[in-house]
């Protein structure tokens, strides 16, 4: 997905499996959200999400002993954590090292699970991905890492989809679908409330050759063998994506 506009994310690393009550708040929250997984694996997904958010966007979901989110407003704090971010990203330090040194606790309880995507089995690797939503802490400003991400921007879902339709940016199918689902909400509170009550179901698209085109269809599309999941009653109308001009373009099924 080089050149695409995506959300921060990545794989669960071995160090993410060290998450526990000693330095993380919300361990029980994490195990409840991913109760189909072993507790240690459920926590690891949440730790990985906070680590990737720190590495790729410079946002640290952590609180001090008084329960306040860490602030990066002062120049000295910003510089120190910027260095930490680079060290963690390069594998020269761990997120726990940073959290322990600063006497913080990782705030896993701020992550709200809202989607589960699995890539089609068309390659030697298959990705099983959970999507989380959170609120950016006060006194923190996200910024790309200049390594895995080369640009960052705040943009409304509607504007991002408009730019995608115009060929100005590339949105992978999960990103497009997520933006379409977020489009109705006017505030962060509304979006978080939706995410917190949504029933998350596993989505695995299927790649087909149809009418001379390569298309990717989601569960619930007439060409997909699986129906939409129980949590997808309000799923976007665009349940298929056509591969045109080296990018996936969202489409509604033809009637």
Instruction: Walk across the major sheet and give the strand order.
Output: 7-8-9-10
Q: Calculate the mean pLDDT score and round it.
A: 92
User: Which percent bin holds the helix content?
Assistant: 25-40%
What's the number of extended β-strand segments?
10
User: What is the beta-strand fraction?
Assistant: 15-25%
Biggest beta sheet attributes: 4 strands, antiparallel
Distance between the termini: 31 Å
Structural class: alpha+beta
Annotation field: number of helices: 7
- Judging from the principal axes of the Cα atoms, what is the shape? globular
Question: What is the rounded Rg?
Answer: 19 Å
Q: What is the domain total for the residues?
A: 2
Q: Return residue spans where pLDDT drops below 50 for at least 5 consecutive residues.
A: none
Order of helices and strands: EHHEHHEEEHHHEEEEE
Can you characterise this structure?
Helices cover 31% and strands 16% of the residues. It has 255 residues and is an alpha+beta fold. It folds into two domains: 6-110, no CATH class; 156-255, no CATH class. The strands form three sheets. It has a four-stranded antiparallel sheet, with no helix packed on it. Strand 7 (206-210) and strand 8 form a beta hairpin. The longest helix is centred in the first third of the chain and has 19 residues, at 39-57. The two termini are 31 Å apart.
